[in-house]
Amino acid sequence: MLAAITPTAGGVVFTGDLNGDVLALDAGNGSVLWRNSTGAALGGGVISYLTGGHQRMAVAAGMSPAIWPVPKTTGRVIIYSLP
């Protein structure tokens, strides 16, 4: 894991990795609840916020500093809508 770890009040922890996967983990036992590939390394934070009555999660993908062994890509922010 490389991205920040973001816990929620609902017992879910969000994070990401250099493979470009965003993960939701069970805070109690660490099991993977959900995984999504962004196609680009995650190295920034994962934030969760409420807007318009809907929970959202945003991640920064495409981080590619010279010291990371990942392909160079364009950085972007990806926003997910949570149920």
Short overview:
The chain is mainly β. It contains no helices and seven strands.
Describe the structure.
Helices cover 0% and strands 52% of the residues. The chain has 83 residues and is an all-beta fold. The strands form 2 sheets. A 4-stranded antiparallel β-sheet has the order 1-2-3-4, with no helix packed on it. Strands 5-6-7 form a 3-stranded antiparallel β-sheet, with no helix packed on it.
- Helix amount: under 10%
Give the quaternary arrangement of the chains: single chain
| Form type | globular
The biggest beta sheet is recorded as: 4 strands, antiparallel
- Going by helix content, strand content and strand pairing, the class is mainly beta
* Whole-angstrom Rg: 13 Å
Total helices: the number is: 0
| Quantity of strands, as a count | 7
Q: What do the pLDDT scores average to?
A: 86
> What is the CA-CA span between the terminal residues?
24 Å
Q: How large a portion of the residues is in β-strands, by DSSP E?
A: over 45%
How are helices and strands ordered from N to C?
EEEEEEE
Unreliable runs = none
Order of adjacent strands in the largest pleated sheet: 1-2-3-4
Observed structural traits:
single chain, 83 residues, mainly beta, four-stranded antiparallel sheet
Please outline the helices and strands.
Layout: E1 6-7, E2 12-16, E3 21-26, E4 32-37, E5 42-51, E6 54-61, E7 76-81
